[in-house]
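Regression test case RT-17, inverse folding.

Input:
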């Protein structure tokens, strides 16, 4: 008789490499790219007028951190991002549930939602500056208007994807709208909402940079604009690296949350 050793001993434990393959391969690719970039920079194959090298960016980081305004810029951009993204998630979820659930409300707001979603948000930045001035409120609102639509649209899709048989069964047992919302609609929409949050993180970071580049005197976006206008490529690339690193970390966290709740759906 043939014995299935996997059934006998249980599932095989994955090795360290298998558990961290994405991190290992991705990290190796980044290190190789940085090494090639630094080699070209050290060999004077790159003009500092048009580009820079990793060592120059690292040197600029130390200088800005110890003697410059990098800490204040990080705090300023982080505040704008957190407040704008938080408001976008709260607004997108609440409006998404209402629009997805009430058909007549969806019909009323659909033209406005489509128009705003189709309009490039960069085109609205001058108007936002007129409304809110050059302070943090305009930067926060740029983040908000960039990030709210992914959450809103995904929440609407999640509400509308609620299983019709489950809804009929709940109504057959005389469940109230509040009970249906809390036990069926919202739990079923959570994976969709988290997908929208993951997309909103990237768009929110874009909003931070755009808002600070087009008006203001502090923040990471201002650092990028200042470095570009003064031909300080190391300063400009420092801002780009900070934004890119923040995007990688925040997107990774959002993906972890999305995978964690991907099966949080009511069972039939």
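Golden output:
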């Amino acid at each position: 008789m043939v014995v299935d050793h996997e059934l006998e001993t249980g599932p095989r434990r994955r090795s360290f490499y298998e558990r961290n393959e994405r991190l290992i391969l991705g990290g190796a690719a980044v290190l190789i790219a940085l090494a090639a970039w630094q080699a070209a920079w050290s060999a004077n194959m790159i003009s500092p007028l048009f580009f820079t090298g990793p060592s120059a960016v690292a040197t600029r980081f130390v200088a800005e951190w110890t003697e410059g305004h990098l800490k204040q810029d990080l705090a300023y951009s982080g505040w704008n991002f957190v407040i704008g993204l938080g408001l976008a998630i709260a607004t997108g979820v609440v409006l998404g549930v209402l629009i997805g659930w009430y058909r007549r409300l969806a019909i009323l707001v659909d033209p406005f939602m489509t128009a705003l979603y189709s309009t490039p948000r960069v085109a609205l930045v001058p108007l936002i500056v007129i409304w809110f001035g050059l302070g943090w409120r305009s930067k926060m609102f740029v983040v908000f208007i960039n990030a709210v639509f992914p959450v809103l649209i995904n929440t609407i899709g999640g509400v509308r994807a609620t299983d019709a048989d489950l809804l009929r069964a709940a109504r057959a047992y005389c469940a109230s709208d509040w009970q249906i919302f809390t036990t069926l609609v919202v739990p079923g929409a959570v994976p969709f909402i988290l997908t929208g949050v993951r997309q909103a993180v990237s768009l929110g970071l874009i909003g931070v940079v755009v808002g600070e580049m087009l008006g203001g005197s502090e923040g990471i976006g201002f650092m990028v604009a200042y470095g570009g206008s003064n031909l300080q490529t190391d300063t400009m690339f420092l801002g780009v690296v900070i934004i890119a690193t923040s995007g990688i970390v925040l997107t990774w966290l959002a993906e972890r949350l999305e995978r964690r709740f991907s099966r949080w759906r009511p069972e039939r």
